[in-house]
C-alpha cells in the first residue's frame, strides 16, 4: 500500500533520533561507505593501544563494535541525549564516559596512546594533542564541506558556501597543535533517499544539514520533494568524508 505524505511525515517525526545509529533507515535510504573503512582502521590500531579515547562518541556506536578494547578506554560526549545513551551502552563494559567540554578535556597530559573521533562537530584538536602520549596516534573521520548539499538545497534553495574546514584546512589545524599528519584522504559518497520519511528522519538527526529544520517550517519544499520522488525515484545526494591520521612526535 502506498503511504501518504502526511503519514510518512508523522512516522518520521515520531522516530527516536538519539545516538548515531541509522538502522531506522534500513530499506529506506542508503549511503556508500568510505573506502578506507574507519571502523576497521580503529580495530587495527586498538590492538597496539593501552589507553584509548573516543572524542564525541555519539551514542557509543563505534566503541561498542570494536573487540579487544584497551584496559583504559574513555569517551566524551557533550550532547545530553547522546551522553545518556553512551553511558547506558558503554559503562557496563567498563568504559568511562564523560561530559566532554571541548575547551578542556578532563584528562591529564600524555594519558592516551590512541585518540579517535568519527564525525566530530567541534573537534578539540589542541586538547587531543595534549592528552596524547609521545608517539601516540590521532585518527578521525570527518565530514567535509558541502556534505549532502544537494539535499539541503532541495529543502532550503541555493545556499552560500559553508564554513566547515576542508580536509587540507583541518590538516593544517592539526599540524599547528604539534602533531605530524601521516595520512589524509577524502571521498564523495553517493546517498539515496527512497521516501520523504527517510529525508525527514535524516534532517532531524543530522541537524547541521539544515540547522533550522522543522516539518512545519519546510512543509512546502518537503511536499515538492515527495512529489518528485514519487515520479522520478530515489533522491540522490552525496556525503563528503575525509580521513585524517596524525602522530605525536617522540
From TrEMBL:
This protein's UniProt keywords: Methyltransferase, Transferase
Give the Methyltransferase type domain ranges: 53-139
Q: The organism sits in which domain of life?
A: Bacteria
What Gene Ontology terms describe what this protein does at the molecular function level?
S-adenosylmethionine-dependent methyltransferase activity
Q: Report the record's Gene Ontology biological process terms.
A: methylation
Q: Would you tell me the protein name for this molecule? A: Methyltransferase family protein
